[in-house]
Amino acid sequence: MNDFHQITVIGLGLMGGSMAMALKERIPCKVVGYDTHPETCRLARETALVDQVAENMAAAVAQADLVILATPVGSYTTLFEAMAPVLKPGTMVTDLGSVKVPAMTAATEYLLPETVFVGGHPLAGSEKGGLPAATPTLFENAYYFLTPDEKTPETAINRLKTLVSTLGAFPVTLEAGRHDEILANTSHLPHMMASLLAAIVGEKADESMTAFTGSGFRDTTRIAAGSPALWEEIFHLNRRQLLVCLEDLEKKVQAVARALKQEDRKWMQDFLEKGKVFRDQLPAAGKDYLPAWYELYVDIKDEPGALATITGVLAKAGVNIREIEILHAREGEKGAVRLAFLSAEAEQQAMKALSGEGCSFARSKGEKQDAHHQSSH
Ligand SMILES: NC(=O)c1ccc[n+]([C@@H]2O[C@H](COP(=O)([O-])OP(=O)(O)OC[C@H]3O[C@@H](n4cnc5c(N)ncnc54)[C@H](O)[C@@H]3O)[C@@H](O)[C@H]2O)c1
Ligand SMILES: O=C(O)C(=O)C[C@]1(C(=O)O)C=C[C@@H](O)C=C1
Question: String of b and e for 183-218 (b: at least 16 CB within 10 Å)?
């Protein structure tokens, strides 16, 4: 149960705006917001994003039971220093920042001992920034890291876990250093690779190349459109871990180049095979943390209304879809929709309902089941 009477969100951009919306929808408490950008404050007031947009940081946090920082991590030291004398004793502070060791260090250094800081980081976001890009569903079905340390009271961790679960996310507790190591590999390096790919084509200043960027290039570079200021800061703050990743990358690039030069096609085939195997099993990755998923891959023709047919059939059958994802869809061609359910029962119900409509689908175990096969059971 939520026991925060007032939650204050500092920074009302993509992440803070989404957090404020989600809190307003799901948590019965007063939500106060603060941002240094006047246009963001104006929009927040105009759209009634929060119950109150504070005039200054001190006013925003003075009565808060929980403060959530949703600003760039580089701003934390100044913010912590300014809020430390204003916070009520026992107030909890958390954040949404992408790098956790510097956040934990700044909190220890600048917040008073009676303030409880627990680092947080939802593994959800977008390349688009600012309040206009915010959405209340951003945290649904997302992993949400919490990085307490050995001094963090268990009750504080549990209060945040409850809040995170109420937002529809999956709380995962991790040591801050381990978090930064993992995210260097799975988020920060990919962002750098996307920017590298964008640079390779962009710097050629060749119009044909820009024109002929297909979905492969677009898929692999989407995140390069993220805020340069935000990402430069993330790279800088996690540079130690990122440099380890880059050393690994350098070795791998050299190995690939060597195989090409030596025409070692077997090596290349094996390398590509390993990548495919890893990528193919990704939806199941993280199952140590997530409750078991029951997944169906439904074949669809990529045409208007195809998705609505599936969701309509399942809604009629009263089946709750936990996650939905469109895969490999290209205009006018066949694609697939990945549906995830939380129980085997829901998956069974979905299979029954879909086969009744003549849909073909595969289960995540890989066994192909078509409408005929299903309806004969
Ligand atoms: N963008 C993502 O996909 C993503 C995902 C997870 C976590 N994060 C983290 O969330 C945080 C916010 O990122 P975002 O994408 O929402 O950025 P954003 O630019 O959309 O929003 C940041 C907001 O903070 C405000 N701000 C900046 N300094 C401030 C200060 N000192 N006081 C008050 N307001 C201030 C800005 O005016 C802006 O409105 C970052 O720490 C980032 O690492 C981002
Ligand atoms: O999907 C995206 O656009 C993101 O960049 C989200 C993403 C990521 O998955 O790497 C990026 C940075 C955040 O710290 C968390 C999530």
Answer: bbeebbbebbbbbeebeeeeeeeeeeeeeeeeeeee
Do residue 18 and residue 165 come from a single domain?
A: yes
Residue nearest to atom 9 of ligand 1 (CA): 97
Q: Are residues 207 and 260 in the same domain?
A: yes
**pLDDT of 371 higher than 60:** no
Q: How many domains does the chain have?
A: 3
pTM of the predicted protein model: 0.81
Distance CA 235, CA 193 (A): 12
More confident residue, 310 or 33: 33
What does each C-alpha distance from 102 to 49, 76, 112 come to in angstroms?
29, 9, 17
Q: Is the ipTM of this complex over 0.95?
A: yes
95 three-state secondary structure: strand
Among 221, 223, 282, the mutation site with the greatest number of ligand 2 atoms within 8 A of its Cβ is 223
